[in-house]
Amino acid sequence: MISVKKIADELLFTLSTNNSSYQMKADQYGVLLHLFYGKKLNDADDLSSLIFMTDMGFCGNPACVGKNRIYSLDNLPQEVSGFGTGDYRDSMVALLHEDGSRAAEFRFDSYEILDGSYKVDGMPALYDTSVTKGETLIITMREVASEVWLKLYYGVYEKENIITRAAKIINKGQRNITVERLLSMNLDMMFFDPDMIYFTGRHAFERAPERVPVKHAKIEVGSVRGTSSHQYNPSFILCDHNANEEFGNCYGFCLAYSGNFIAAAQKDQKNQVRVQMGIHPNGFSYLLNQDEELMTPQVIMSFSDSGFTTLSQQYHDILRENMCRGKYKHEKRPVLINNWEATYFDFNGEKLIHIAKQASELGIEMLVLDDGWFGKRDDDFSGLGDWFVNEKKLEGTLKQLGESVNAMGMKFGLWFEPEMISEDSDLYREHPEWALAIPGREPNRGRYQLTLDMSRADVRDYLLGRMTDILSSAPIMYVKWDLNRSICDMYSHVSGKEHSGELYHKYVLGVYDLLERLLKRFPDLLIEGCSGGGGRFDAGMLYYSPQIWCSDNTDAINRLTIQYGTSFFYPISSVGSHVSACPNHQTGRTVPFQTRGDVAMAGSFGYELDLGKISEEEKEQVKKQVDRFHAFYNLTHEGDYYRLTTLENNDSCMAWAFVAKDKSEAMLTLVKTQSEGNPVPTHVFMKGLDPDKNYKCIIKDDTSVINSGSAFVNAGITIPSVMMQYESVIIRFEEAL
Ligand code: GLA
After folding, report:
1. Is the CB of 417 under 6 A from ligand 1?
2. Pocket of ligand 1, candidates 340, 575, 585: which has the most ligand atoms within 8 Å of its Cβ, to mutate?
3. CA separation for the pair 234, 278 (Å, rounded)
4. Model confidence over 636-659: pLDDT tens digits?
5. 235 FRET partner, CA 20 to 30 A, in 425, 439, 442, 653?
6. 533 lines ligand 1 (CB under 6 A)
């Protein structure tokens, strides 16, 4: 709910969800002050009295307050902060005016309330469904000395406990302005001494949580790689120092954007925490002529006063329902086999048919043909950009291959890396100017490849044309959309030098545009996002691809950490996860086949190994795993997810559970990560069951016991047998009437 109260010459705005409130005030000077974000307030509450003003010294006073020395933009909690006019903390907006001055100071002008969610120009945003509908508050702010307007967007999703923010800047003046920094949000939290949890990593080891106290030295993470990156995810949590899965105040911030970003928290001199998130200002500057505007990506915020589990579930629900789109948002996605780790580039038509045949006999439902089917592409030195089928290698057309796969009762999917170009390609020979490279410099290569200038319409048209041809030539229902390098050497031959600071952003807009047009042409296509695994695992990509290949690391034990970190924000249905061969290709570790299946099942499930090389017993396991995946699909893809163990306290096992929304059934997975001689029992506390319901608890499909939900949650479950290292167990709970 959005409520606005006029009190004298001030306006009090309160955004309420079922469990949270967000309050701000346009004060008598038009400054938009942040008053509170946290547990739900009463309707009549006005937190203006929390604001404490004193002359702190060296904190100047805006002209509008006259001789009042205690009113300073430098220490008031604000919703927008500008550069150059007396707030010396980090700014949300920085403007360069035509006369060379740098100043941005915004005052309240007006507001409007819209029924429904707002859209973000050219970018993903939460949208309304029949189940969930947002409300929008738009506050229009006006720059004090130029004709620059700033619209602040607030989205409210009541029962989901979600509030979103975005901003749009509009140049209504006759003079050009350059936007040097425009973040999606600024939030100054007054009485809060939090930890920050961000998610860090590297290629093949993404999204490990790190938790640090927020102090006066800034904690800032981000990416200038052109993509959201493996190294830092565009999501973070601020929480009480003692917050854990079930306890404590915590706030989530998640940016629906797939390019350069920053996320920062820092205490100011008054111990208020300034929180910021948005497009990274490095390399960013945006020229706005008269009547031109620029909108930021959307930040999705959520609050829980009962720890991380609730916070994560709120994100899972909203992203699954209001960010993911298309046929496969809820429809069952096929269990796939991907040929990459089975063959790498070394395949031909016969091998692929053989893989498909073996897979179909085991119940696998889709063959995904990975890298190497196009142009001259037998290694990663060449071919990217030449999206023409290599029929010689396939020993036939793509249509023939797709139809043969279909004839086995399987669907067919295909890998693309649209944004890239190899120097050894016909496309590069024809259009070297389409690749990002700065004239007079040798471009940096990544995996031997260069990046296409996705800000160019002709590049996108070419890609759309090629992909449309290929996708309409054969029965392809799935595309793996990959990107295998970080981006630099940003220069466009068509943009003009005054627009060079816009290119990173325009690259991202270009990618979104191409994805949108492709999906318009093929609305039922299932896209799996990928960037060397999870290098672009963000809420923005989920708008186009309801699943994303989580990591190039398929080691089930490393995946415990990677999937654990991913689960804080992203729904389990979005986590691409496969059973692969052992010794594992990335780590050399050998893990039981069952464990590999159980870990992959906490995601969008598939296989990525040579089925010809596994034993008969393992083949039987594949059949069982596929059946089990189907049996549990509703739980894993639509149920509530619980982390039962933490990384910090992981002495000997990792465990998680899925509980049906109506609490009628549940499934718990436990993996023994360390073992010892003469072991103490393996024991785990369940979560999320209805304490008053009785459940039949079935361990490993053979032992069962009936007890109340309360008993399983409070007394836990002891695994009846000794568990060896890397062994896993699945425990099912069925409501016992
Ligand atoms: C990336 C992907 C892999 C595979 C290869 C193909 O690394 O993450 O899954 O598709 O590219 O080159």
Report:
1. no
2. 340
3. 9
4. 999 999 999 998 876 799 999 999
5. 653
6. yes
Could you tell me the CA-to-CA distances from 237 to 46, 118, 163, 207, 233 in Å, in that order? 26, 24, 14, 13, 11
Cα–Cα distance measured from residue 535 to residue 228, given in angstroms and rounded to the nearest whole number = 7
pLDDT, tens digit, for every residue of 600-643?
Answer: 999 999 999 999 999 999 999 999 999 999 999 999 999 999 99
Ligand 1 pocket mutation, candidates 345, 483, 527, 552, criterion most atoms within 8 A of CB: 552
In angstroms, how far is CA 60 from the centroid of its own chain?
Answer: 40
Give ∠ CA 594-596-601 in degrees, rounded to 5.
Answer: 95
DSSP assignment string, 21-52: EEEEEE-TTS-EEEEEEEEPPPTT--GGGG--
Q: Give the other-Cβ count within 10 Å of 56's Cβ.
A: 13
Residue 597 one-letter amino acid: G
Q: Which two tokens stand for residue 164?
A: 């979103």
Instruction: Please give the single-letter amino acid code of residue 472.
Output: S
pLDDT one-digit tens code per residue, 513-564: 999 999 999 999 999 999 999 999 999 999 999 999 999 999 999 999 999 9
Quote the DSSP letter at residue 334: P
Of the pLDDT bands very low, low, confident and very high (cuts 50, 70, 90), residue 436 is very high
For the CA of 608, the nearest atom of ligand 1: 9
User: Which pTM value belongs to this model?
Assistant: 0.98
